[in-house]
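Encode chain A's predicted structure.
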Amino acid sequence: MSEPTDSTTAGDSTSDDPLEDPDAYRNALQAKREEKDRFFADHPQSPIPPEEREDFSGLTYFPPDPTYRVTATVSLEDDPDSNPVAMDTSSGREVRYLRIATLTFDLERDDPDLEDGTYELTAYSQDGSSDTLFVPFRDKTTGQQSYRGGRYMELDVAGDLEDGQELIVDFNLAYSPFCAFSETFDCPLPPEENWLEVAIAAGEQEY
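Encoded structure for chain A:
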């Protein structure tokens, strides 16, 4: 069963800059979150077990923070098929993914208590396509403020993905996989190369 995703279209780093109108950005993000809550509460494909839906009052999120919407530089894999990744799943299986690209980005926050720096995440695909990049990750909130199995992002790429291209990565759209809500679902777990040594206080929190 496929699950709906919180995806963002990756493109020019100057498009729809939330810092130009942070209120509009927060309102759009809140609308997206409310739409997802309605899906979880009412839809037959909701991951919330049927017996729990009556008491479901919505997901919990970190506050919207435009500083977690970053510009990442793409480094394409030379030959994705030559080095597939076997990801463990929540049920103990393995699933095969291909490395498509490394995304390098800077985190710069105003709060001196938060960790800034340059970080990398690997973007994957099961079929080798770069139309949609799967970016599972863990961070220092994992198992504390966010789901213990990690979180996901999906980037919809407009056009051909190129080496050196800049993509928008918005951690405010990071979401928990369906296995966070029910053991009925089997979800890939982020491989160690996507374990960030920084707290990403954005996106969905632990349910």
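Confidence is low (pLDDT under 50) at residues 1-5, 9-15.
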